[in-house]
Amino acid sequence: MGIISVGLFITLDGVYQAPGGPDEDPEGGFEFGGWQGPYFDDESGEVIGADIERMDALLLGRKTYDIFAAYWPNRGDDDPIAAMFNALPKFVVSRSLTDPAWEGTTALSDVAEVRALKDRFDEIHVIGSGDLTRSLLEADVVDRLNLFLHPLTLGSGKRLFADGTGVPAAFRLAQPPQAFPKGVIALVYEPAGEPVTGVDISQG
Questions:
Q1: Is 80 helix (H, G, I), strand (E, B) or coil?
Q2: How far apart are alpha carbons 62 and 98 in whole angstroms?
Q3: What whole-number distance in Å separates Cα of residue 48 and Cα of residue 146?
Q4: Residue 35 resides in a domain
Q5: Residue 152 placed within a domain
């Protein structure tokens, strides 16, 4: 049985929108695209690269898929990440996209179809795709949550858990946190059932 691993670059106030470039995703008038760049260093790059090398399938939501499909096929195989993404089996969850143009892509009409991918692949990675991530968490099919926490706040933008989204859940650290020279911290979590509440710490 394979796993579904979600990877997100995220700010201290939970924003994941457009980390990679100024024009990546301006939806909602977002003006802070490209916020990840100043915090990138060789050490974090090695960890991100190693994580990418472990995947054998890529799963994306429609919006992130459109961003990736417009970018990575044009990078050429001299870029090792582009070569991997272009060669991997890719899946996009979308009710409207039926004939994806990015070679090697299969469209799934519903999150319910995602669970079956675990029988076909060892590591299915979700990158970005906040809407899809929330749906996968609600469906209880996420096995690993990789958060690259960046030391800044933006005040606006798409958040992983906005008001009224998400379900109650507990997580446990799957490995020790990693801190990088420019202040980014890599946190790897695994689901740990329902949260325990109502504990009075004064009685501990």
A1: helix
A2: 11
A3: 10
A4: yes
A5: yes
